Amino acid sequence: MDLAWDPPSNNGGSPLTYYRVYRGTVSGGETFHNAFSASYTTYHNINLQNGVTYYYYVTALNSVGESDRSNEVSATPVGSTGTIIVQATLNGTSWSGNVSYQLTGPSSFSGSSVPSTFTSKPTGSWTLQYLSGGPGGTPSISPASTQTLSAGGTITFTLNFTNISKPSPPQNLQLAVKFATSTRKPGVRLTWSPPSYNGGSNISYYEMWRKEEGGTWKYMGTRPAEYTYFNDWGYPDPQLYLGKTYYYRLVAVNLNGLKSDPCPEVSIPVQVLIKTTTQAKVYYSTSIGSAVLVTLPVEWYGSAIAGPYYQEGYYWYYCFWVYNSTIYRGYCREIDLWFSPGP
User: Fold this and answer.
1) Which of 30, 296, 334, 337 could form a disulfide with 22 if both were Cys (CB 3.0 to 4.6 A apart)?
2) Spatial strand order in the sheet of 314-323
3) CATH class of residue range 2-75
4) Residues 305-334: what's their mean pLDDT?
5) Structural domain boundaries in the chain
6) Does 171-269 match 2-75 at the fold level?
7) Of 1.10.3730.10, 3.90.470.20, 2.60.40.10, 1.10.10.10, which CATH number belongs to 171-269?
8) Nearest to 210 by CA among 183, 243, 244
9) Regarding predicted confidence, which is higher, 49 or 230?
């Protein structure tokens, strides 16, 4: 069964990362079936039962979450004559894994795994075309890329791979703090360079990982290969927090599905550049009646290192200042400050 769909007309302000395919044998009764990188908009569903009606819908995912479902479609596979088998070898040895290919003839079929058997297909001339994936490199097809299926017969296409290689890690990962004044939330902007070696196949996407100091790595999602930057606002956590240190690393994945080693991890303490917009007081606590540590002149620069806290009708930030060769740490009102949005 072949499925195809168009990307959403609106990505929700964040690039797509995955599609999810849901399948069932009752209308409205679909459950999760498979997931694909956002670079794929087709799926060939094999091993279905002839005469059974299958129902499908697709959803799209970005860093924020999952879309509403697409329209529901259905189809019923019907048997015919003959069998077609797709296999793969690596240096003459049997190999099984993900390969994208297109089979055309009396009908068209696409696949994404080997070996695969297409049973009960129409007789006639069939042509196999390799698209992407596999253990590395572009395979030859034997005994020929075009063969004729006779009634009740079997033909086999074999994809012959001769090398296997993984890409080198992404390079030059750099971090910078961002700040969204509308939501009062900090973020981190990641930029990087592609791997110096792609493993013999173009890079498909990047995996992004983050952890807190002393924590475990969390998967942030993927980034298509054409992008070498990303603004992290905290997914899969609710948000990032001022005052914490975050670590990042990336993995490159090529069209053969091979992953690089992680790039060297890079860390950044989340502090936001600020400056006073008036003569601002630095308080000992978030109570206006508390002691004033210092009064700063207009346009004096410092750092917001924690917050916000809401008290006394104001939003407050815990800030770091150096004034007259003295270090001050205390609370300042948001209305007295300008926050750098970052890159």
Assistant:
1) 30
2) 292-296, 280-283, 326-333, 314-323, 301-311, 272-276, 337-339
3) mainly beta
4) 96
5) 2-75, 83-161, 171-269, 272-339
6) yes
7) 2.60.40.10
8) 244
9) 230
Instruction: Give the mean pLDDT of 44-55.
Output: 77
pLDDT value, residue 47: 64
Picking from 282, 291, 290, 298, the residue whose alpha carbon sits closest to that of residue 333 is 282
Total-model pTM: 0.57
Domain 272-339: assigned CATH number: 2.30.30
What mean pLDDT do residues 101-123 have?
A: 86
pLDDT in tens, 173-227: 999 999 999 999 999 999 999 999 988 778 989 999 999 989 999 999 999 999 9
